[in-house]
Amino acid sequence: MVVFSSCKKDKDEAAAPSKSKTEYLTTAKGWKITGFTIAGQSMFNQYVDACEKSALDVYKTGGSYDHTYADKCDEDYDGTWKLTNNDSQIEIDGDTYKIDELNGSTFKYSETQSSGGASVTTQYIFTAQK
Questions:
Q1: What angle do CA 53, 126, 20 make, to 5 degrees?
Q2: Which CATH number fits the domain 20-128, given the four candidates 1.10.8.100, 2.40.128.540, 3.30.70.990, 3.40.50.300?
Q3: pLDDT tens for residues 55-100?
Q4: Cα–Cα distances in Å, from 99 out to 22, 49, 76, 80?
């Protein structure tokens, strides 16, 4: 015997609309670097020192950001950012990167450079602080 049942969802249970990339970027309490790859290989511990691992990037509406070090190992700084190319790229302090992923918990962006006829992609991976 097979029994089918269904229930009606309340309006409150309806899926919330997804946020824009700007909303994801600016509503996190900050972003910490948690990964760094070159040509798909993790180089996090080789290239990201303890000081940088303690840093927090806070993106603000209006196009500015703060880069602060939790352990005060270096001077904090600020800069500018903006989404470009239909929100598929981010420009940070004049440098443009491809947005690979951006949601409520993860922000990944990359750049590809050519050297000697070969292309190498570097990816930066950040985790949202809640």
A1: 150
A2: 2.40.128.540
A3: 999 999 999 999 999 989 999 999 999 999 999 999 999 999 999 9
A4: 12, 24, 24, 16
